[in-house]
Design a protein that fits this description.
By secondary structure, the chain is α/β, with parallel strands linked by helices. Helix content is 37%, strand content 19%. It has nine helices and nine strands. Strands 1, 2, 3, 4, 5, 6, 7, 8 and 9 form a nine-stranded mixed sheet that branches. A hairpin with a 6-residue loop joins strand 7 and strand 8. Helix 4 packs parallel to helix 5. The protein is globular, with a radius of gyration of 18 Å. The protein starts with 11 loop residues before the first helix and ends with a helix.
Amino acid sequence: MTGMHNDGQPSLAEQSNEITHVLGVMSGKGGVGKSIVTGLLASALRNAGHEVGILDADVTGPSIPKMFGVTQRPDVCDIGIFPVKTSSGISVISINLFLERPDDAVIWRGPLISNTVKQFWTDVYWGRLDYLLVDLPPGTADVPLTVMQSLPLDCVVVVTTPQDLAAMVVRKAVDMCTKLKVPVLGLVENMAWLKCPNCGSIIHPFGDSGGQRIAHDMGVPYLLDLPIDPEISARSDGGTIEGYLANPFVDKIDAIINALVAIKQGKKHRGV
């Protein structure tokens, strides 16, 4: 992967791409379900008829290929690298698609990881996309900083879980967005509740869901909460996340798109 020509001009792939919206999915905390949120949101967007791509920026812990059941290596030509297509037509690029075995560890230092993420933008021929989702690793260090400074990121979705500990760390991600002037589209609270398989009662295993309060305290919009659903886990393990019919993002997708468009129009109005 080369990224830029010797004369500093964008690569052929980057010149050829037409990507309308770039949306990050992040959280300061690991294990809160960023990739699940990315997968469900991408599936809902695709279900609504949009052209969608996922850039898996979690280089040392990639899970997007497994979740969507894609294993083939990307094709390469003079233009660049072609992303792999999922069963519904979502374009995916991830470091795991380049490894000999999916369990191989990526033991790289920060600069090499950040450069790889940049090349997933510059050297991949995404073509025409309505939405490119960037699945970010935990924390506020090299890769999130690289994405926010090097990619034309419109905004981010922040993911948390109900525990105060998770919310405390997620606040760091929101603070990073504020300092780097990246708008937050909204907060998703994952693993907020579950339905008892016997009586159908709603249970909050980590205490009462506080997603709306957390979002209010952080000064960001509240998008939705996600349940603890064994089907989500089974479909993620089985590579069929696109077939999750209870996807809560489906009912919210119009509101999410409208909010994203409003953010982009606001940035244009301000000359950003």
